[in-house]
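Let us practice reading a record.
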Amino acid sequence: MRIPNGFKEKTLKEYPALQQFYKSLAEPLFLEVETPEDHARIIAKCEYNHPGETIKAKVALAMIWKLLDNLEKPTNEITVLEYSGGGLSMALSKLCYLLGIKTVLVLMDKTPTSVLDVLRGNGAEIILTDAKKYGFYGVIEKARELKKEHPEWKFLYQHENRANYHFHYHVTGEEVLDQNYESIDAWVTSIGTGGTLIGVYDSLKRKYPQLQLYTNMPKEMPYAHDGPSNALPKFSGSGGLGCGKKQKFVEEREHEVVEHYLTSFEESQEEMIDFYAKTGTFIGSSSAANLFVAKKIAKKLGKDATVLTVFQSGALKEEKKKILESLNQTAK
């Protein structure tokens, strides 16, 4: 196991459940996606085999690890507060359950039932916000309110928690570097918090100075969107915050972004179904959206380039059902 700079190795020994969770993360897996001969090579880093089937398992581990590095009381005497679009909450609730930490999670009321069932099974307290009225930014605001009401709670705040960025820099990025690819010319993923996007980018730039940075965002709610947050259907785990607000990690590197791509919900769904039809592998809508954009970049850069993206999550139960129903209808 890698011990990222700034994280204490002794904490893993003091909390066996934390160490066991780290060990449960899947071994690095990379998949080369077939492309036309005149297009760039596409490599996808697969992160859907972790607990919760999401790269967010790494974020949960990182934030809790840093919390425990400086904790001065038993874990059963603290309460962790966090908001989530879904993926992080599943991994975080499991880890906190294993550590005996009480967890309060704020999500939108449109969160899939399959996700809520997992959270309840892990003993988390769930607070739902009105998605139509407040959108995703509403869960962040609600979490902030709860922190003011309960100052003793440990609010993780994933969008500004540096452990998020540092873990992707020192672990996820290093996993790519271990592959010793001759060249990587472009890196693209959806923004989300920006921790994966920027952490991996900064890590890879050390070996690949020519690396170009691209982002992928839902067309329905792009990065730095000036309008209010909304609850329109969009690919999961990503989206702008609304009201012109920007994800901190991305804002710090905004000048290095070559292009911001927009992917509609429909486009992500079609790519998700198409990928399963061709490979027999379920990937989530955010992973499919990344592939959709990676293909555009591969066409733009041409056959001598390499594009790296990430499949950050597997398909939810509801998404798998939709994929299979769509293919069954097509077969009739």
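A brief commentary: The domain at 10-53+169-229+249-331 is CATH 3.40.50.1100 (Rossmann fold).
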